[in-house]
Amino acid sequence: MTVVAPTFDLVVAANRLPVDLVFDADGNSTWQRSPGGLVAAMDPVMRGRDAAWVGWAGEPGPAPEPFSDDGMYLQPVALSPIEVQEYYEGFSNGTLWPIYHDVIVQGSFHRTWWNTYRTVNYRFAMAIAKVAAPCATVWVHDYQLQLVPTMLRAMRPDLRIGWFDHIPFPPVELFAQLPWRRALVEGLLGADFLGFQRTADAENFLRVCGQLLGMATKGDTVTFTPTGKDLSEGRTVRASAIPISVDFKGLDALARTPEVKARAAEIRASLGNPKILMLGVDRLDYTKGIRHRLKAYGELLQDKAIAPPDVTLMQVALPSREHIDAYRQLREEVDGTVGRINGEYSAMGSPAIHYLHQGFSREEMAAMFLAADVMLVTPLRDGMNLVAKEYVACRHDLGGVLVLSEFTGAWHELHQAFICNPHDIEGLKQTIMRAIDIPEDERRRRMKALRKLVAAHDVYWWANGYLEALASAPERPHRPTRAGNEERRVAERANTFNRRASDRASEGEGSGEHRLLADMGKPPG
Ligand code: F6P
Questions:
Q1: Which residue puts its alpha carbon closest to atom 1 of ligand 1?
Q2: b or e along 159-189 (b: 16 or more beta carbons within 10 Å of the residue's beta carbon)?
C-alpha cells in the first residue's frame, strides 16, 4: 500500500528542523530545540500554523520519519556523515560563512564540497516538492540552501518561492572570490522574492548581479534569463531588506513572570550581588567578537577601572560547529583567556568572569537578561544579532544598557544603544565605562526608545511583511517593508553622536568625563 504524504499551502525549508535529535551516552534519543537565531525567530511564527517544515534533524544518518509537532508537520532530510562534513561543515560553514562574514577567517574552496552542496540542495528541493500543495508558498532560509529556489522551480513551476538571508551578503569584491559565484546567484534567482537583513545586503546582492554577472538590474529588481531560454522567458526577482526580529510580547511576558524575576534575583545573589553585572551571550563563533570583548574587559581590570566583586562579567558561549578547526581554535583561545583573566583578577569567591560553555532554556536566558546591568553585543560581523533584541524585550523594568557593535544588522535599527567598534579596543573600553556610568534617567530613556522600536517591529511584523512581499513580488506590497529614507536618516544622525564619542576615545580626545581616563592619568595610547 502506498502512503500518500500530506501536502501544505505553506512550506518552510531551513538547514535545521526547529528541533534536533540528540542522543545520550546510552544511545537514547530526545528532541531538543535547535540552536541559533533562525529557529528562535521562526519557531514562534510557525507554531500553530498548518504548515510543513523541511530540514535536517541534526544527526548524520538516515532521516527519522516525518512527524507533527504542535500542529506543524516536520519533514526530516537525511545527511550522511560525509555530507555533514562536506555540505554543512565544509561548503556552508568553511566556504560561504567566512566569505559572507568579511573573511574574519580565510574561506576554503574545495570542488568536492561544492558537489556535495549541490547534491544536498537537490535533496531539499525534492523533499519540498513532495510536501508542497499546488500553488503553495515556499519560504527557503539561509546560505545553506541557495540553490534550492532554482532547483525547486524546475520541478514545480506552480510554486511561489521566497528566500531569506539571515547572515550578511558580502560586497562584490569578496563574493567574486567564489569559484561558483554565478551558479550560487542563479540558484537564488529561481525565487520570486529575496529578503535580506539590511538594505546594504540587498544592494550588495544586486551589485553582484549587475556588475559581476552582467544581469539587468533596475531599482530593487533583477531580470534574469536562464541560459538557452528566450529573452521573453526572463524572470524579474525582487531583492529587498526586511530585518528579522524577536517575539517581543512573548519575551516581555516571560520576563514579567514571578519565576523569572525571582530567578534573576537569585542569579545576582549567586554572583555576590555585584554593583554591575555585565553579560555576553553568543554562539561560540569567531564572528561574535568574544576575543575582542575579553581583551577590552581584561584591560579595564588591569587599568583598575573596574574590579570584582563590584563589577563582574558573565559570558555564555553556546557550543557551536565543534568539528571545524577555526571553532576548535577559538574555543582554546577563549578558554585560555578566561583562565588567565580569572587567574590574575579574581578575588576570593568572586571570579572576574563567570564563563558558561553550555546552552540554557528560554526561561533561564530571560532571567539572565533581566539580571544584567550591561549587555555586551560586540560582533565583528553579524547579519542581525537577535540577542540584542531579546535583551531589550526582557527589560520591562527599563533597567539595563545595551552596548552594540556597529557591524551588526541590529545597529541599523537600535540607535539608542551604545555603539562600539569592537576592533577599537580603546574605544570599546570607553564605551563600556560610559555604559557602566550612565545616569539612571538616561538609561531609562534609552531603554524605553529601544523597547518601542522592537515592540513595533517584532517577529510577527517581520514574518507577515515577508510573506506579503513574497505574495506581491516582483511588485512591492502596499505596506512598507523597510525603514523609509527619512527614518533611516534620523537613525543615522542619532548614531553619529555615539560613533564620535567612541572614536574620540581612541584618538586621545576623551572629554575627561570617564573614570577610566582619570584613573590612568594619561591619554590612552
Ligand atoms: O543564521 C545563521 C545560522 O547558520 C542559522 O542558519 C542557524 O540556525 C544558526 O546560525 C546556528 O548555526 P548551526 O545550525 O550551524 O548550528
A1: 166
A2: bbbbbbbbbbbbebebbeebebbeebbbbbb
CB environment 376-393: b (16+ within 10 A), e (fewer): bbbbbbbbbbbbbbbbbb
For the stretch 243-264, pLDDT in tens is: 999 999 999 999 999 999 999 9
CA-nearest residue, atom 7 of ligand 1: 36
Is the shortest distance between the CB of 481 and ligand 1 below 6 Å? no
60-70 pLDDT tens trace:
999 999 999 88
Q: Is 37 in the pocket of ligand 1 (CB under 6 A)?
A: yes
**Predicted TM-score (pTM) of this structure:** 0.91
Question: Within 13 A of 253's CA, how many CA atoms are on the CB side?
Answer: 5
Specify the length of the chain in residues.
525
Q: How does pLDDT run across 497-525, given as a tens digit for each residue?
A: 555 655 665 555 433 333 333 333 333 33
Mode of pairing for the β-strands spanning 67-69 and 72-77: antiparallel
* Crossing angle for the helix pair 148-155 and 111-131, to the nearest 10 degrees: 40
Q: How far apart are CA 433 and CA 296, in angstroms?
A: 11
Query: In angstroms, what CA-CA distances link 125 with 5, 120, 187, 227, 465?
Result: 16, 9, 11, 21, 24
Atom of ligand 1 nearest to the CA of 142: 6
Measured distance CA(158)–CA(136) in Å, rounded = 8
Which class for 460: exposed (0-12), middle (13-18), buried (19 or more C-beta within 10 A)? middle
